[in-house]
Amino acid sequence: MKILLAHKYFYRGGGTATYLFALIEQLERRGHQCVPFTVAYEQTEVNSYQEYFVSPPLAADQTHLNGMRLSPWAMLKLLGRATYSFEARSKALKLMDEAQPDIAYIHNIYNYMSPSMIHACRKRRIPIVMRVPDYNLMCAELHFLRDGRVCTECLEHGYKRALCYRCLKGSLAATTARVASMYVHKWLRVYDNVDLFITPSVSMRETMIRAGYDAEKILHVPSFYPGQVDENRSPVEDNYILYFGRLAPEKGIDILIQAMAMLDGEVRLVIAGADVDGTQAVLEQLAKDLNLTNVRFVGFQDREALDELIRRCLFSVVPSRWYDNSPMAILESFTHRKPVVGSNIGGIPEQIAEGCGLLFEPDNPEDLAEQMQLMVNRPEVRRQMGRAAGEQVATRYSPQVHCDRLLGLFEDVIAAYV
Asked: How far apart are CA 85 and CA 129, in angstroms?
């Protein structure tokens, strides 16, 4: 099969890109050919199709909104790109004429790429499967959060509600651009052209149905983690709990630090991950205010260093306060046979099943402290959960299972395409 893979970023970093590059490796091992379609940022990996890549909406080194220089002219350009890019449509048509793909597998194409390529696929009669790893289709703020709390007003009352609260980065201009583009896509019915939506969690599928998408066109396919469980290596336990991932408000790390203040014993907390918008300084001040000397921030870790941190922890914590869809951090922990204490929200409880960890009420530090204390105090139960976690990731979340399911769906969509 020749598969067109569309994503606005084609460089390593971030959950969707991690999935995408791992998927390409798995598909190519099976003899399939992957054709990328993306935005030509400075970091974008060079390949034989780069002449068809879309130009960045602003500078080639400005990949995310918080790093962009937002003049009025820049905002107009972003609005145009987010709404509909004729350049992306034209280049997608030329790429399809050159590569002749059998199917398009679309990921995050919003904002800097636009969904105009969906119309290009339809014009060239290319079947479309779209993976939905986030809430871009349903929430102007992207996370169903407002002022650090869950908010579903976009879902219940329409995207216009985001204007009242300046949901996107606190900016009325940025929020207006985002909301305008979402309404245009709705009026154009652009996503009606997608033949099949794939969601990494059942929770995401249910949210899409609630938002009005056709239930018959949405299937849940669990994600996968490319690492292998090392059954020959004995688990190691140092006396620390681990959080790893982005240091962002929606991740609920402040709740984890508050819970640490209620924990008995000498156990430490290690926090590994890149800072987002100054969140680390806020968290460090919180730990200081609580007189915690057992909380350590180690920053971003490369793959080898992070693997070692996971391998040696007692367990990891995923304290998200948002509807986290299918956190890769859980699967990474499972690969090292480490259980997870996670928020009972979004797709997290679907992953922490079969005795692989414990759940707590989101935004409840007392409940989190109680669950962590149970995990600390019961080493045999903790290790049994770790073994169950390793079995879970080796079966339900394996690359083999995921690719078999995905390719089967591709074949079904192609066969049924009209």
From this structure: 20
Query: Range of 299's domain?
Result: 240-395
Whether residues 210 and 343 share a domain: the answer is no
CATH code where residue 374 lies: 3.40.50.2000
Domain assignment present for residue 235? The answer is: no
Residue with tokens 């014993």: 265
Tokens representing residue 64 in the block: 């995310």
Same domain, 17 and 71: yes
For every residue of 235-271, DSSP letters joined together read ----SEEEEES-B-GGG-HHHHHHHHTT--SS-EEEE
From first CA to last CA, the distance across the chain in angstroms is 18
Per-residue model confidence as pLDDT tens digits over 214-253: 999 999 999 998 877 777 666 789 999 999 999 999 999 9
Q: Is residue 234 part of a domain?
A: no
Number of domains forming the structure of the chain: 2
pTM, 2 dp: 0.90
For 353-379, the pLDDT digits (tens) are 879 999 999 999 999 999 999 999 999
Q: What is the CA angle 154-359-351, rounded to 5?
A: 75
75: helix, strand or coil? helix
